[in-house]
UniProtKB/TrEMBL annotation:
This is DNA-3-methyladenine glycosylase I. One of its GO terms (molecular function) is DNA-3-methyladenine glycosylase activity. Pfam families: Adenine_glyco (PF03352). InterPro entries: Adenine_glyco (IPR005019), DNA-3mA_glycosylase (IPR052891), DNA_glycosylase (IPR011257). SUPFAM superfamilies: DNA-glycosylase (SSF48150). It comes from Tistrella mobilis. Transmembrane segments: none annotated. GO terms for biological process: base-excision repair. Gene3D superfamilies: Hypothetical protein, domain 2.
Amino acid sequence: DTEWGVPVRDERPLFEMLVLESFQSGLSWITILRRREGFRRAFAGFDPDILARFGPAEVEQLLADPGIIRHRGKIEATIANARAVLALRENGPGLAAFLWAAVDGQPLTNH
């Protein structure tokens, strides 16, 4: 396994995980993973700087994109979360430090 349980500290892959988790809600993981490349294309490679500038026209384009899950609430939440990532970067520790602070910067190992 090269994905699950592997510590990630870079902002963009962490944001990607956040977005995919959001879209997975109510669906199977395989449904999301099969559309992962579609999500990457549609959501500008999960670049928060680009996504934060998305507006109503881009939301409508995403709602017509068969390569992703077309759920208005989840799409709008992704854009809002991108804006929150920028705010974290400007006013605080940034996304990675914010998330890792919950576990004192160390991966948890459950036995």
